[in-house]
Amino acid sequence: MGVGGGGALVGTPAKPALRFRIGEVPPLAEGFTDRPDTAGGIADMLLPGSASALVPSPASAGGLPNWLGACGKTQIAVMIAESLWRSRVIDALIWISVADRSSVLSGFMQGWVAATGIEPTGTAESVAVRFVGWLSQTRQPWLVVFDDLPETIDLERLWPAGSAGRLLVTSARPVMAVGGPGTRVIPLGFFSVREALNGLTERLSANPVQRQGAIDLVETLGCQPLALAQAASVVASSNLTCRDYRDFFTSRREQMWTGPDEMPSAAMVTWILSLERAESLLPGAWVRLMLVLVALFDGHGIPGVIFGARAVAEYLGGAAADSKPAWDALLAVERVGLIGINRDVTPPTVVMNSAVQTAIRLAAPAQVQEPAARAAASALLEVWPADEQQPWAADALRANAASLQGSAPDVLWADGCHPLLLRAGRSLDEAGMVESAVEYWQDLAARCDTKLAPGHPDALVVAAQLAAAYLKAGRADEAVQWYQRVLAEQTRELAPGHPAIVATRVSLARGLIMAGEPADAVTVLLRAVGECEQFRGGGHLDTLSARDELAAAYQAAGDFAAASRLLARSLADRERIQGQRDPQTMATRDRLAAACLSEGRVKDAIAHYKRALSDREKVLGRGHRDTIASAAGLAGAYQASGRMSAAMQFAERTRAESERVLGPDHMETLVRLANLAHLYFSVGRVDDAEALLRKTVVRCERTLPPGDPLTLTVRQSLANIAER
Questions:
Q1: What pLDDT, on a 0 to 100 scale, did the predictor assign at position 68?
Q2: 280 with 296: CB under 8 angstroms?
Q3: Is pLDDT above 80 for 485?
């Protein structure tokens, strides 16, 4: 017996890249210099096969804002990454700013496409795990950077390792257990006096007079990287000397230090001086309004296109189509060191230190933050593509939406569930991030219960999305429960036969089949088909799709004859309405072939599979995923008929094409390897069967979750061969 499989569409793979970069590497700060005293030798420690983590030393750890934790970890990581890349020591650079697990999934999916040329299919988890497997085996030298790794994050099965690779982690907290097994943890403190002085004088090289008092300023600022960067930016943008700045700094700190608490951190003072300097460069309200807006987003990378949105222009009080005020404000705050702008990408990306963001949010009153949050949400929604061509690459938009939700949660629920929250969740769905999507919709559903009135339409939308997420994640019982809840609400609010009701019945039936209740699924789908026929007619495409779903339920319930009859009727209707080579017509013919095979009508199954394969080769091409599936079905039908030579021909063809198009570790490829091994065994090629099963079990164990049914099946087949 073979093992089944299925999935979404994919075309012919692209050519893999010889060298590739994934993710946006932050720019080095202006005036950046090496740190031979406090970070010397770190690059030398990062040898092939090793992993290192840069964390603040315990002495430089702080609370919120974590000024003292800003010790320059990311800048060191940038220096190392760019040095390895420019010197061609590495051929693959994967930089991921880690907000959560989905950030890593997104980066690894992009890495998979670049490394293999194969479009990602299946869940994000499965693709990411396959990329981790590629990293473990490739001889191509690589570096993965996990920047700003949170303390509490589950990266099980996603820790990259391999003899050709390096892993570099940065974390904002002095967590000594950060990283995977064998990670070398390297605590980092502030600059040495020499490093701080070198950086400051380099930054002020355009006007050496401004360096007067530099050594005193360095000592007063405690060699703190963030404070020094802001101070240098203010001095460079003015006629001040370091001595002048130190006087301003000392005076301001004394004003702030009025109680028995510890003296304020240097950066707690310098950011305020930077704000004042920015307002002198650009008088008016734009600077403060822009800083509050930026502080609500994800400081690791805010797509510059956001600042050209109509919502931002209106928030700043300008004309809806005028982005100049926004960029004038951004350039002013960049000059004083409060943000960075990465111009190496198009459009540019804005970054802001998380400690500065926290300080701004703490300082800004609610009546200032609320309009900023509304503008930020509208701007994000405005620039978010309606059709994400590569949804796995939309992590920057999702990260900014998540940051906004965390920074201003109440604002996004003032008038119901803000459309941005729905868009962000659907982006997770589209990217195949099934577990992340489940967690997201669970959280949104819980918030609906606490923030919205009973029966609010937004709550029904979220409930339907949660049900769909459960279904995609294979959590059938929960999917059925939530679809039943949605259906009950829809039947109260909508007219009989409404398309939304029919769609929910179809999804509920899929959940019932997955839950092992195909008879109940048949009952639900008979109702759905009846409603479609009554309200839309027997020839409507929705009716034909509902019949196909009913046929699948009959087949799951073991009534193969009923499934075949219904599919034959649907096929005739589709050929008449849509044409013989429409993709849906070809898919229905393929399903009919499978139903005939299950019913024991092997000759009819072969005829339908041959026709489906021929049509798909002509329309989609031999290397299309659906064409490969038809060839695999034909191989199974030939095997059932005893035509082993023909079965072998098509089984070996689908094995080769699956490995080429989907990748050697894709679930469907593994299924076809197992099926081919069983075919080898059936014809007496026991040694070939055993060798192929051993190869398959290694791939299964590397890429599938522990206890996966396919892995267990392949192991059992090997055990059966060994017992002969």
A1: 60
A2: no
A3: yes
